[in-house]
């Protein structure tokens, strides 16, 4: 296996003096290609900040994030935006679907924003993978929470990114739906050779991943 995501001596602090928060504190992290890695930690442990820094959504004070051989913070703002669009897929807790677009249109939206044409055969395969082939024309407000999250997974897959970053993807779901969504994530790793890094506060959920990384006080401790 080869390393697809590497974090080196990453630092992100907020505030000053007595109000200083060491959100990410000289931490290192790696994810191997084709693996499902869970980063688990309590609220305030720094896991969300780490994910945002890995995704190029926030800039670190120092350190490096290397994705698929590119040190992303060596890129300027515009180049980083293009890299993020093409190489990083995101799955958020609150789905972030566009309510005026149907399932198919939500899936292909990132490709359109990047000026690329969707490969219909590939999108059909993704719809089948996420179990929504029969709901391709459904609007988001007609979908259950689990179905919405599956659309979000499909959207992340559509641009064939180097890595998919999932921020508490089951946080809004009941326990049964939670397991269904995790099963979809695991299938995506197996069937599409995807690399997924998921943050969660739930240790039981984390155990379904291939690799479990623990973060405390802004540091990866194991």
Write structural notes for this entry.
α3 packs parallel to α5 (145-158), α4 (120-129) packs antiparallel against α5 (145-158) and α5 (145-158) runs parallel beside α6 (175-192). The protein contains seven helices and ten strands. By secondary structure, it is an alpha/beta fold. It is globular, with a radius of gyration of 17 Å. The model has no long low-confidence stretch (mean pLDDT 93). It has helices spanning 47-54, 77-87, 103-113, 120-129, 145-158, 175-192, 203-206; strands at 3-14, 21-32, 36-40, 62-67, 70-71, 88-91, 163-167, 196-200, 211-216, 219-220. The protein has a domain at 3-98 and 163-220: P-loop containing nucleotide triphosphate hydrolases (Rossmann fold, 3-Layer(aba) Sandwich). The protein has a six-stranded mixed β-sheet with strand order 6-7-8-3-9-10, with helices on both faces. Strands 2-1-4-5 form a four-stranded antiparallel β-sheet, with helices on one face. β1 and β2 (21-32) form a beta hairpin.
